[in-house]
Design a protein that fits this description.
It contains ten helices and 15 strands. It is of the alpha/beta class. Helix 10 links the parallel strand 14 and strand 15. Helix 2 crosses helix 8. The radius of gyration is 20 Å and the shape is globular. It binds NADPH dihydro-nicotinamide-adenine-dinucleotide phosphate. The site of NADPH dihydro-nicotinamide-adenine-dinucleotide phosphate has 32 residues, from helix 1, helix 2 and helix 3. NADPH dihydro-nicotinamide-adenine-dinucleotide phosphate binds next to helix 1, helix 2 and helix 3. This is Alcohol dehydrogenase.
Length: about 325
């Protein structure tokens, strides 16, 4: 058997004439069926993100062409490479760059990708740990870095994390607590209080505490925030952010709408920091992954991560869109 005959197992999405989408676990593909790219990676793990849920269930706006192998994250080792930066056996990871959206992604045993999209996996970080982090955890770290770049430090007051039980939220709570912040976790699942406290949250508040706020300026409370839900929650958070504070906005699990006023910005100097993990430049990626390798608290890996096979992805996709998945899910091909 030559390299190009190597069997590939993959979850393949196809679109019907009526625009509905089918997901099928295929066992009959070979490496030759994979899209072009300089590096062939043997995928050891992928992960489940909100965006993967949208893709697998055929929701508009994620997948740009069919057939498509979803999975916006992957980690594994290099099989072959025509790019000098990567050699067979190198441990690598990939998040974003439109992989799993416009280029076949991580829900497969193999992926062929552009060398520019890959990141060397940090020393000692397993593929499973990299995918326990995945796009969600990487985004949480980019959000922490954005707050720090803004000059915010734990002694300035409380930080709030919205969507705290989700993937981005769980990692954000754990990272911030480990950095010494007093973390307030905003969640619709207040029964997850023990879990969030185990990650380091000092206080749990219901979603409605922020989303029900209606005035342009509320009582100043939070020095900083990481928001993965958008909508009225983000509006309420901006109105409650203290003078000179900042909110890193990275998600839209509640809504992509943002109805607010300029008051927090012009009367309190509050800043809204946008976080884009997909096109994040390579040097910032490497810095974020190096920090994740040393700062990721063990509590997250112990309580916030579970593992599922590729065959479970469709069921899990429905659960993550319904807000029922806690923490991070590693997918094994
Ligand atoms: P998850 O589904 O794991 O987490 C989202 C969380 O949001 C849920 O667990 C829930 O937390 C909360 N939530 C869900 N529905 C609602 C609602 N209607 N109102 C208020 N809160 C709600 O997803 P991820 O963590 O993977 O992603 C979170 C968001 O971040 C998504 O919108 C995703 O697209 C975005 N994202 C953006 C990235 C970027 O580069 N900017 C990268 C990665 C993700 P709880 O139960 O605790 O309330």
């Amino acid at each position: 058997m030559t390299q190009s005959d190597v069997q590939v197992r993959a979850l393949v999405l196809t679109q019907n004439e009526d625009k509905t989408v089918n997901a099928e676990l295929r066992h009959d593909l070979t490496v030759q069926d994979l899209p072009e790219g300089e590096v062939l990676v043997a995928v050891e793990a992928s992960s489940l993100n909100y965006k993967d849920g949208l893709a697998v269930l055929g929701r508009p706006g994620v997948v740009r062409r069919y057939p498509m192998v979803p999975g916006i994250d992957l980690a594994g080792s290099v099989v072959t490479s025509t790019d000098d930066r990567y050699r067979p056996g190198d441990p690598v990871l990939l998040t974003g760059w439109g992989v799993g959206e416009g280029h076949w992604g991580g829900y497969a045993t193999h992926a062929r990708v552009r060398a520019d999209w890959l990141t060397h996996r940090p020393e000692g970080m397993t593929a499973s740990t990299a995918m326990a982090v995945g796009t969600a955890g990487f985004t949480a770290m980019l959000s922490v870095m954005a707050l720090e770049d803004h000059g915010l430090t734990p002694d300035m007051g409380e930080v709030v994390v919205t969507g705290a039980s989700g993937g981005v939220g769980s990692v954000a709570v754990a990272l911030l607590a480990a950095r010494g912040w007093t973390v307030v976790a905003s969640t619709g699942r207040t029964d997850e209080g023990d879990y969030l406290r185990a990650l380091g949250a000092s206080e749990i508040i219901g979603r409605e505490v922020l989303s029900d706020l209606k005035r342009p300026l509320e009582k100043e409370r939070f020095a900083a925030g990481i928001d993965s839900v958008g909508g009225s929650t983000l509006a309420g958070l901006l109105a409650s952010t203290r003078r000179g504070g900042a909110v890193a906005a990275c998600g839209l699990a509640q809504s992509s709408d943002l109805h607010t006023t300029v008051m927090p910005f012009i009367l309190r100097g509050v800043s809204l920091l946008g976080i884009d993990s997909v096109m994040c430049p390579p040097d910032r990626r490497e810095r974020a992954w190096a920090r994740l390798n040393t700062e990721l608290p063990q509590a997250l890996l112990d309580t916030g991560v579970h593992t599922a096979p590729l065959a479970d992805v469709q069921a899990l996709a429905a659960q993550i869109l319904a807000g029922q998945v806690r923490g991070r899910t590693v997918i094994l091909p």
